[in-house]
């Protein structure tokens, strides 16, 4: 926020400085969200990996301690995400909704393009699988091993 008040730099005026500050804040918030989600997923994976039953009681105690640590890290990351959501809500309330709506619309359009690409890819894979299956069936039904009876001793 101090960037906009400082009036520094490029002659773009306060709106350019505010837009730059908003873009930087959005980038920071997205990085925080990515980091927190990654931490939750990584710690959950480690927690699941540690949740095995082993024979030596010492090892089980060590694993239990590691599980407690992983669970605590998951809680910290979840609290960080909760704080991030709270900060985003405050930002949405106290700033213009126009830029947020534009960003949401842009992301929706991006996801729609990705969805269409994924659907085309799935259709192609399905067609290729069907063609391969037909080829394999034709090969199987024309196979000598299938048509000739096996003779025993």
UniProtKB/TrEMBL annotation:
Coiled-coil region list: none
Any one annotated GO CC term: mediator complex
Region: Disordered, residue numbers: 1-24
Record field: compositional bias (Gly residues): 1-14
Entry annotated with the keyword Nucleus: yes
Keywords recorded for this protein, A-Z: Nucleus, Transcription, Transcription regulation
BP term (GO), one: regulation of transcription by RNA polymerase II
Domain of life of the organism encoding this protein: Eukaryota
GO molecular function: transcription coregulator activity
UniProt subcellular location: Nucleus
Cross-referenced InterPro entries: Med22
PANTHER family noted in UniProt: MEDIATOR OF RNA POLYMERASE II TRANSCRIPTION SUBUNIT 22
The protein's name: Uncharacterized protein
Source organism of this protein record: Musa balbisiana
Lineage: Eukaryota, Viridiplantae, Streptophyta, Embryophyta, Tracheophyta
């Amino acid at each position: 926020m101090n960037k906009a008040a400082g009036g520094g730099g490029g002659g773009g005026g306060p709106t350019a400085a505010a837009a730059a500050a908003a873009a930087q804040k959005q980038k920071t918030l997205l990085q925080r969200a990515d980091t927190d989600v990654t931490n939750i997923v990584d710690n959950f994976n480690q927690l699941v990996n540690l949740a095995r039953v082993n024979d030596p009681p010492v090892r089980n105690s060590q694993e239990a301690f590691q599980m407690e640590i992983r669970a605590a890290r998951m809680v910290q990351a979840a609290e960080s995400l909760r704080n991030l959501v709270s900060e985003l809500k405050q930002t949405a309330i106290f700033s213009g909704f126009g830029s947020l709506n534009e960003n949401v619309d842009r992301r929706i359009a991006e996801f729609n393009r990705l969805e269409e690409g994924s659907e085309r890819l799935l259709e192609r894979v399905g067609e290729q699988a069907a063609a391969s299956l037909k080829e394999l069936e034709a090969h199987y039904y024309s196979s000598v091993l299938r048509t000739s009876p096996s003779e025993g001793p």
